Amino acid sequence: MPRRRRRLDVFEQRRFLGPLLIAPAVLFIAALVGAPLLLAIYLSFTNAHSGSLSGDFVGLANYTNEWRDPVFQSALRNTVLYTLVSQAIVLVGAGLIAHALIKPFRGRWFLRLLVLLPWAAPVALGTIGFLWMFDALFSVVNWTTVNDLMPGSGELHLYKIVNWVFARDFWPGFIQIGAIDPLAPPQWLGQTELAKAAIIGVHSWRILPFAVVIFLAGIASIPTEVEDAAKIDGATGLKKFFYVSLPLQLPIATVALLFGVVFTATDMAVVYILTHGGPFNSTHMLTTWAFDTGINSASLGPGAAISLYLLPVLAGIAILMLRFARKAEVS
Amino acid sequence: MSLFRLPRRLGPYGIVVPFAIVLAFPFYWMTVTAFKSPTDLFNLENVPYSFGEGSPTWDNFTFLFTDTLFLTWVKNTFLVGGVVVAITLALAVPAGYALARLTGRWGQWLAIGIFLTYLVPPTLLFLPMSRLITELGLDNSKTSLMLVYPSFTVPFATWLLMGFFKTIPPELEEAALMDGASRLRALWRVVFPISLPGILTVVIFTFSLCVNEFVYAVTFISSSTERTVSVGVATDLIRGDVYQWGSLMAGTLLPSIPLAILYNVFLNRFIAGFTGGAFR
Description:
The complex is a heterodimer. Chain A contains 16 helices and no strands. By secondary structure, chain A is mainly α. Chain A has a domain of 211 residues: MetI-like (MetI-like fold, Orthogonal Bundle). In chain A, helix 4 crosses helix 12, helix 5 packs across helix 10 and helix 12 crosses helix 16. Chain B has one domain: MetI-like (MetI-like fold). Chain B is 75% helix and 0% strand. In chain B, helix 1 packs across helix 14. Classes of the chains: A mainly alpha, B mainly alpha. The interface between A and B is large, with 99 and 100 residues.
């Protein structure tokens, strides 16, 4: 009887119970994240083709070859472009929406529901919705802008408003491309610049609700005493926004931004479904180009090298997140 | 006076309504399309927003259920999701509890390490994974997804659960320990029941991550009958020149509705877990 008691004691000790509970998860993660990551790094130094796991060691050749490849270069530029522009849109939009939604007003829950909808749809399925909206022949976006929205009585052509903004000689070419010719409506997914705009639009659309949610949580966590103190000190309007609200919300904005960057830069579904990198490989991201190279062309080595170009970005974000976490702990 | 107040009262609407229209429009458009007949849909003379000849109709849904593999994909998604949820809970509940309670300084570093693995995306790992899956003879079967999906759900779930367990006061289990219960028994009888809401949240978000996943599913699986719903709709229904837009939109809409409801119900719990309680 005493002996049995002692054996149970082993489980009672923190020293043993802790590792015992953690070990399965850690081993599983090491096997399914750590090992493939190391394998990806190994593959990127070989000329492995799919069909075999090993290839000849080629050193940095995959990395340097890709770096010189024009498609890779545009994929890299696009990844940066899509990520930066969509996150800028998301931050501004989410900031505005969250501020408007924080105080109760009639119909708030319904508007919140509508704003959060894109987050619930699986990425691939939402993107198919956009594929249909940007269809070459039946695009509802084009129909809405080109046709008279108030037939009979008054004229309301949205394209005229759009052109009043975009069709100006002093704009650089990539802005003038937003102008709409009602007789030849834009081919959203057929023209490089427009396709890029469409991709950025879809990325912003799906990340925005997530950022709104984070912002709402962050704003709600700011103690009301701060607001009151600012009011007593006579801070109002823009002054209050820049000196009180903005600094307090910076950490929240950072969290939303870092996650948004990760979600956008590492996504493959949006570009894969919307343009498949086309027209003429001009809208690829690193992820879709890695897929085309590694799976469709069966060049595992170069494909692994392409996707590993994402690693420095992710490492940078990881460092920023850890720094931020430590700061939050101190304060 | 009321005239001056007016802009302030209309302010929220002026900002939120335009955004809400843009953000929700694709869903509205999916719904309208899903109920349209082909003759109505492909007539350029028609106003797309209203129903014309032969619309509204259930034909697109009937087609989706009887002439495509949609129901097979839904079944596959539930199978994969169910198994992944079970694996995730079995690994993440003990780990999350241990990280929240039982370990010291190195436990903190381990927690950070687990969080960082969540930042390693499938798009970085899918090439070596596809090779490993082929070596294991699992290619072209949904078993491969059941094995691989926990690689991103376990870190996420462990992190979430750690946050939840930290909010439960340790005095509760200490009282049970005083009464002579073992630590495992205290965990099972005291901590587990209180943390059921947290566990339920993990179940829902793990499942929704499985529905969402695209990269692995499109890489590992090439036969239609083994696909999950996201990839099945995106690849099988779009293949070729003939787009069945009506049933395609019905197929995108149906999985999105239940997810939208669940997300809205569990929103607040999700935020608390996701930010690790940083904003409490």
